[in-house]
Specification:
By secondary structure, this protein is an alpha+beta fold. The chain is about 20% helix and about 25% strand.
Amino acid sequence: MTEPTEGKSVDQAPSPWTRPWFLASAAVVAILVALLVLYFVLPSPSATPGPSPSPSAAGTGTAQAGQESACGLPAGDQRLPSVGLPTKWELLGRVAVPTDPKVIGPGKINGNVRTCYQHSPTGALYAAANFMGTGLLPGGQAIVLKNLTAKSPMQEQALATKAPQTAEDPSLSTKIAGFRVLAYTGSAARFSVAVEVTKDGRSAYGSMDVGLRWEGGDWKIVMEETSTTMAKLDDLSDFVPWAGV
């Protein structure tokens, strides 16, 4: 993304890239836009795929002690999630998201608003995945900003700005496909979440970094630390496999 040019003339319209709502919701919009871009840059089925990235070890270890969540979920297992993570999935719109309402979260579900996650590395991962699923719903950007985003001046400015409308492509299917633990301290977490997008029998992989903060007894998305672009992946060799239906 290019930076705004200095010294614009006074009659020049302000760039849409600098408007509060775009800055705060760009991470959500990027999911839709980037998935479409991934499809259009796919090689033809006969093309030779590029070299796969070298594999890296999945995150392991134990984090600091957690706290009870706002809805009473116990802190639970503080080990970092890794290969073989047992997960129940359910559809949120057209995207499968992880769910364990009595242990990991979301502990509170009100329509499409899914909040209250366990204060643990796995709870933060569940929150990140549900954030991505919510962001792909029609009107999902507004839900994310109002209910799932950490407090910040950027969030306040964006809430006072009209939300843009995003179109859903019914021919495009999206599936969470894997994750990498980038950082976890107990008060903050960061993951790279891989997705698979399919259209007309052709598939591509992409990944998006998601930053979270423990705030008010729940995991909230930190927009300033969440990617506004999605990286194209040749395969998922760098990620822990994790997929629903």
